[in-house]
Amino acid sequence: MLRFDRMSSRSTRAAHEAFPPFRIDPRDVRSEAVRCAVCGEDRPRSYRPGMYSVAGVPFHLVRCPCGMVYVNPRPDGPTLGRMYSDPAYYTEGYNLGVETENYFDRRDELVQQYTETARALSAELGGTGELLELGSAGGFFLEGAKRAGFRVRGVELSAPAADFSRRELGLDVYEGWLEHAPWPDGTFDVAYADNVLEHTTDPLGTLAKLRALLKPGGHLVVIVPSYVNSPWFRALLLAQRVLPRKLLGEELVRILKLDPAKDSGHPYHILEFDRATLTRLVRAAGFEVVSVEGSVPLPAHLFKVARPDLKTRVLRGVFRALDAGMRWRVLPAARLRFLLRRA
Ligand SMILES: [Zn+2]
Fold first, then answer.
1. Is the dihedral of CA 274, 280, 286, 289 positive or negative?
2. Which of 170, 204, 298, 318 has its CA 20 to 30 A from that of 227?
3. What pTM did the predictor assign?
4. Domain coordinates in residue numbering, the chain
5. DSSP calls for 123-190
6. Ligand 1 center to 46 CA (angstroms)
7. What pLDDT digit, counting tens, does each position of 303-325 carry?
8. 282 alpha carbon to ligand 1 midpoint, in Å?
9. CA dist., res. 171 & res. 327, Å (int)
10. Contact assessment for residue 59 and residue 51, using Cβ atoms and an 8 Å cutoff
11. Within 10 A of 216 (CB to CB), how many other CB atoms are there?
């Protein structure tokens, strides 16, 4: 049976010190029906009932004939606001559920990793410049980009996260919604949105605002998870009807999001893009697609072990093989990275 280690109690304590204890009252959970954010149609078909819940109130995934998958009805604005005040967002719910450690505890490791990411981005674009990150969280990517030579600014909705990035890293981060951010149009050379667009209530408006903030010819990087709207997820949903769950193991069932009844988290991902639906949306927002790359998120804890046992080595091999297959487009992607240019 495959097992992934639980988050350490030290991380749990650190998270609870950073954020006060939090509970959402079921009476405060409200929802609203929405149309497809990509094509505007209102013809949802059931996709994954009860995928998420907030204070015991279930939320369902539906699929539009255009291929888009989304939460409908979804939590309304104030309910979403309450969800993002929950400390669990930066612990259990972060990074697609594949990580076992609290985001803030991984500061040094993430800054180092993002410095490499930003250096590669600079090489890809042929230089650095003014960079904006949408959803800058604790500021670790911005810090990495700064070290790689970019001049950086961020937008972050979460007050504790924005505060952390200003206090601990001295970064210029605007706390609030992108549309209220203080910068004039045409300010930035690069905008970066890593695991953000799937959280937004108006993705087309968000992309249009990012486009306006870019200089003509400026670039936007959009990274989204695409596993839940992929043949992987659909095949696993079918397979688990006939395969005994013991074969996968509890932790893998959790990571693969196959048992909503038992372990359903908050609907942070209200949108689930795939290659076709995101391509359609970014073009509608006035971007041209420079490149699209598929990949799978590699669980960091698997690759940090100095002397891996056989099981860990096998899992590393599986993840590396999946990642290679997705980069070569032999396999459907679990994560997509779009490099876009302001048309
Ligand atoms: Zn649609």
1. positive
2. 204
3. 0.88
4. 9-342
5. HHHTS--EEEEES-TTSHHHHHHHHTT-EEEEEES-HHHHHHHHHHH---EEES-GGG--PPTT-EEE
6. 13
7. 888 888 998 899 899 999 999 99
8. 14
9. 33
10. yes
11. 8
Q: How many angstroms is it from 273 CA to the middle of ligand 1?
A: 11
- Report CA(294)–ligand 1 centroid distance (Å): 22
Query: Which residue in this structure is represented by tokens 């907030």?
Result: 54
Give the Å distance between the CA of 42 and the centre of ligand 1: 8
Q: Return the CATH number of the domain spanning residue range 9-342.
A: 3.40.50.150
Q: What is the pLDDT of residue 11?
A: 41
* pLDDT tops 90 at residue 171: yes
- What pLDDT does 306 receive? 85
Residue showing tokens 């490099």: 339
Centre of ligand 1 to C-alpha 240, Å, is 27
Quick check: helix, strand or coil at residue 293? Answer: strand
Q: Which of 97-101, 175-179, 210-214, 247-251 has the lowest mean pLDDT?
A: 97-101
Tokens of 255: 């990571």
